[in-house]
Amino acid sequence: MRILVVGAIEGGTVPMARSVCAAFGRLGQDAHLLDLSDLLEEFRESRSAGDFDRSYRFHITYKTRLLEKVVECMPDVVFGVAQSPLNDTDILTELKRAGVTLCYWFLEDYRLFDYWQTIASYFDHFFTIQRDPFWERLREVGCCTYHYLPAAFDPDFAPPSPEGKGVIPVSFVGAPYPNRVHFFERLGRGDFEIYGDGWDRYHIPPVAVGDRRVTEAEARDIYRRSLVNINLHSSTLEDGFGRGDFINPRTFELAGLGAFQVTDMRKLLPLHFNPADEMVALGTWEDMRRAIGYFLDNEEERRGYAKRAQERVLEEHTYLHRAQEILDIIS
Amino acid sequence: MEEKRFLIIHLSRLGDMLQSLPAVKLLREENPRSRITYFGITEFCQILKNVPWIDNLVTVPWHEIRGVMGEYDDVRSDTLDHLFMRIPELNDEYETVINLTHNWVSAYLTEKVKAAEKRGRVFSENNEIRVSGRWGKYLFAMVKNQEDNPFNLVDIYMGMAGVTNRPATPCLPTNPAVDSSALSYLAGLGYDTDRLSVGFQLGTTKLNKRWPLENFVELGRILSLDLDAQIVLFGSEDEREFEDRFKELADYPFISLIGQTDLGEIGSYLKQVDVLVSNDTGPMHIAAAVGTKVVGIFSGIAYYGVGGPYGSGNIAIQSNYPCAPCTGSTACSDPLCREVIKPAVVARGVKIALGCEEPSSCPGNGASLYRSSFNADGTLQYRLIDGGTDGFLPWLRSSNYNKVVLARSLWSDWLGLEPNALDPHLKQQNGRLDETLSDFSRTCSAYREIYADGKRVCQRIIDEFQKEDRDFPMIRIMVDSLRQVEERVQAIEGPLPTLKEIHGYYMAETGVCDFPRLAEEFLGAYTVLGDITTSFEASLQRIARRQ
Questions:
Q1: Nearest alpha carbon to residue B131 among B476, B384, B505, B513
Q2: A116, A189, A199, B110 — which has fewest CB within 10 A?
Q3: A276 shares its domain with A207
Q4: Is the predicted ipTM greater than 0.90, yes or no?
Q5: Whole domain around residue A143: which residue ranges?
């Protein structure tokens, strides 16, 4: 099967598109990647200038790139990942008429990002990291072929080992959502470092790198150097903790790297990790705060959790596993 | 002496209804010349028909109120008005109406009943949750924070009924004639009265709190071998499939009563076994109410703290998973928290309940054991059996248990219970208790400061309104400050989450009115709430000194 994977221009899903494309290839498919990340600068300029003409020209650019690639490889399947610019319904309709199977992996929280409402019904297969009530909403907008497909880990992307760099006792990598700001303000630890874009607006001592997005390689380096990685899922509610459903890609990433993490409990987590042995998932912020202290003092147990989580990820949660699940569904 | 008339409203599940019985029993004991009317759901109240301390049992079929169980709207209130008119007992006059359930239906009916005193949730026109009485407020406040609640539902109901907390078991009398026929029937099935017997309640209405049947089979094997116990299966007609599967898997003899007992007589059968092993179900509470020892298994949405079987010497086995108890909307179709409770651990619980084994540490990460006993203040308490320091989850459960025990000391004063001696479990915790005490103190002090600020702001508004030449810009600033006070309360993170809920219920009691009256009402609420935190701080200091 010839599969064209369409990546995003920026953000965390750019490497995911690369990983899933590579996985399709390893499973014997004729997989091609449309990598649009080289358009990042042009994209940012078109957004920040407030220049509608420039913005229009940018849209033409990426759509042309998409159509050129389609003509070049004549795919049986076009597979988009979250934030990839498969949002022109005219193009989607034409592709469908041409007999192309359209798939989309919506690796986002449907409550925060609502563009699924306008595109979901155009896809033959819509993969989601959430289930009901999202699926109910999808049915309402006319999308009936949805499938649960959580994020995954790519063991083949391995940045250099962090040897020689210092240990970080407790860290967080990610964006400042309201719940993260609220809880991190209350952590009260001098050994805590936050990495990510936009944190410099908040006065949470002692933030280490607070004013820029870290690269994937940098993130992996931080994960592996940290004794305890805090993985607090995003929420727009200040007190949002432990009541969410989906598992973020960071959960699989940290586990796959063998990095130790404490995360907030998710409704879908027990489907993929055993909360008794593989994942330290907490129901309250109070519990998480205490767990951080506990695991800083218990190295052996920390290593045990990290090892078991890593084994589970390598056995069940790599992009190769996900690509196989996708192929089983669409073929 | 004039006869006192009480109306008790309980429109909820069978298990909760059974947990109200000790309160009803004590209400009669403290008011021997009273007339007690109990209003409940027909299907569940069948079991109450011969309870001597209920004078008048009034019921409504579940299907009649199921459709109106949501929150307030005009259609629902019309249906309930009709129901109210149709039931003469609801139109009688009472000294006291006690609403033990927290749904909107019971609140609406409580509002309509004529009574000098109303306890529990009472409907308000603004559709706010208004709860009268400290215990009533506490019940509502702990519903969202079950894991922080130190009190059994039975004790909360006793508090709401206004009786002195004390042991009240057994609280469900059975008919001696039915007891005899139950024994004869069992004998006909091969039951040997000279042998130890262990009952298994295999089913539950909710799948996610049902311990796997295979585990029950394995438990039966262990108990047959270790204790020569005879196993008796209990269950309803709908649960016949369990009997078939049990038969397929069990390589030892057992007696099955599945589908052979109705709600009216099941108490007589449960009375015959030495101990019942049960999921969190109505029959678990029936067994406890007739005085049979119970080993309760709590997973999924079930939590031993509030729903542990009432009575001394019962065992609760709680899954240690951080997500247990879950909210009920969990995605687990086959929850791991049930699997992690191993048959060997439950067998140990049975042996402890029977006195065959001393309480000792429980190996493994998955579950903790608790044993019930009565405190000096008359309340029931489940005490952690295993100290659990050999792994994170037992450590976390033990750490949370510390918080619950500490919270019990604080809430006891406010709820009017006799202060207990410092729990021995807390005494053993040393450094860990210091940390917990410090967390509690920090939280209480945050509340105290906010309430002090709130009172100051209210007083300034009141003072300004008393002046002839009022400074309205300043009043506006003060009103904004009041808003900030509320925001600061909501932003508090830490132990005692129940306190935040209690805050909400006191604030809901303030009237819909203008300034300066609203400032006066807020001042009253902040004073009450400030007093609570001050008393908590005093208790914490006392505990720290006694260590």
A1: B505
A2: A189
A3: yes
A4: no
A5: 2-149
